[in-house]
């Protein structure tokens, strides 16, 4: 057994944790979820859910991880020996496999677009219809599965490198580049004729969307984008030194997540309305609308290449956190097994994800509960798995961990730690339960 790895700096941890959030959750999923669910109302509910529910649960995961100094299963076994609570960690293990199984499919789409961007720059020319191009990419079974395999290969290579040599090093330079790129794209999108319609869509509320269904979707998005409810942040926090301020780190991750989500909306929605598109175009939004923006920009081919390179970076920072969950649980603190575990679990996740990769082509007619394999995996995680996981983690942190333990991890007794304990004990579980039950009843 080798010594347990640690982050080399606070910035490295924050960027890695934020990278887990600021990936497809913020850039791919947030815009299309907002577009399909009323824009401003969904965004408002997302921000409220993130701060009042997601943030306290995130802090709870940080506390469990650092106190337990292990993955979610082992940490809960240490902190609550002889109980059934480690099942929560095992639930996160299963959910992380499901998430990465369809997440890697989208990562493959990004790789496909990256290759096409290079071809465009080499003289291949821009396509006239990006919607048709996207349909071709996701429907081709060979390309979809091959691209998914290459994406999983990249993820495995990074995770097998460990915390310092793989995850932290990759996050430190990927995330700043993504942020700068999105600012440039947002400025260009906001200067397009008709862009103000997109601003109104984002910030002028349509209260017809204010219902339990939208609230649950916004809550699921908050959990998805913060990567809470599956134990990923428990794993990341287990690599933290004892002198790290957990509350400040959690606020940094949460603030960056909200900022990038809004920034992604400012890139997408002004362009959607300016170019005559529909905000409800769904998962293909960044693959249809954003490339169309590039055709209206000088050196658009280079911008498109840059964007999909950075999208690949952002997607990888999220995917490595999902694979890290399975690897950390699988090796059970036997760190010399990390590389082998990364390859084994990477292969398993790739195989599990093949039906999602084929959901838009060979298996387009295969439905369960009226959903494609891709949508089913997303629904299991976002509408059920993550809210249930967050609910149980809240109860664990609020009622199983003593006040002495949580106060120690939060820097001592204070008004802030008392407020957090109140939220995580009563408000978060109640809010999750009410929204969840109202949606099932509706």
TrEMBL record:
Keyword Membrane: yes
Alphabetized UniProt keyword annotations: Membrane, Transmembrane, Transmembrane helix, Transport
Main location: membrane
Keyword Repressor in record: no
Pfam families: SNF
InterPro entries on file: Na/ntran_symport, SNS_sf, YocR/YhdH-like
Residue intervals passing through the bilayer: 12-30, 42-64, 85-111, 144-163, 175-196, 216-239, 251-273, 285-313, 342-364, 384-401, 422-441
Cellular component GO terms, alphabetical: membrane
Protein topology in the membrane: Multi-pass membrane protein
Protein name per its UniProtKB record: Neurotransmitter:Na+ symporter, NSS family
Organism: Edaphobacillus lindanitolerans
Lineage, broadest ranks: Bacteria, Bacillati, Bacillota, Bacilli, Bacillales
């Amino acid at each position: 057994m080798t010594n347990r790895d640690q982050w080399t700096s606070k910035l490295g941890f924050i960027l890695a944790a934020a990278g887990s959030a600021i990936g497809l959750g913020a850039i791919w999923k947030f815009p299309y979820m907002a577009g399909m669910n009323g824009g401003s109302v969904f965004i408002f509910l997302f921000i409220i859910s993130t701060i009042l529910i997601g943030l306290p649960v995130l802090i709870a995961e940080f506390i469990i991880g650092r106190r337990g100094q292990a993955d979610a299963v082992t940490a809960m076994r240490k902190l609550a020996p002889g109980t059934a609570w480690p099942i929560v960690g095992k639930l996160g293990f299963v959910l992380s496999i499901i998430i990465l199984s369809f997440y890697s499919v989208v990562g493959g789409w990004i790789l496909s677009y990256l290759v096409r961007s290079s071809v465009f720059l080499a003289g291949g020319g821009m396509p006239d219809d990006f919607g048709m191009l996207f349909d071709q990419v996701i429907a081709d079974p060979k390309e979809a599965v091959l691209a998914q395999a290459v994406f999983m290969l990249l993820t495995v290579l990074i995770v097998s490198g460990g915390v310092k040599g793989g995850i932290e090093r990759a996050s430190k330079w990927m995330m700043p580049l993504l942020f700068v790129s999105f600012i440039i794209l947002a400025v260009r999108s906001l200067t397009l004729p008709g862009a103000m319609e997109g601003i109104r869509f984002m910030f002028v509320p349509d209260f017809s969307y204010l219902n339990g269904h939208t609230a649950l979707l916004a809550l699921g998005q908050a959990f998805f984008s913060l990567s809470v409810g599956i134990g990923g942040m428990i794993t990341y926090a287990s690599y933290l030194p004892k002198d790290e301020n957990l509350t400040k780190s959690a606020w940094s991750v949460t603030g960056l997540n909200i900022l990038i989500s809004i920034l992604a909306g400012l890139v997408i929605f002004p362009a959607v309305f300016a170019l005559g598109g529909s905000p409800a175009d769904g998962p293909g939004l960044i693959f249809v609308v954003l490339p169309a923006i590039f055709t209206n920009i000088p050196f658009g081919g280079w911008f498109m290449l840059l964007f999909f390179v950075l999208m690949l970076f952002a997607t990888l920072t999220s995917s490595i956190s999902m694979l890290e969950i399975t690897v950390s649980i699988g090796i059970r603190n036997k760190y010399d097994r990390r590389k082998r575990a990364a390859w084994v679990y990477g292969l398993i996740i790739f195989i599990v994800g093949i039906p999602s990769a084929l959901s838009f082509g060979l298996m387009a007619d295969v439905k369960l509960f009226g959903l494609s394999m891709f949508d089913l995996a997303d629904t299991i995680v976002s509408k059920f798995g993550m809210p249930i996981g967050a609910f149980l983690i809240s109860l664990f942190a609020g009622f199983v961990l003593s006040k002495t333990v949580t106060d120690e991890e939060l820097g001592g007794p204070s008004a802030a730690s008392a407020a957090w304990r109140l939220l995580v004990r009563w408000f978060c579980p109640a809010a999750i339960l009410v929204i969840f039950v109202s949606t099932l009843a509706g």
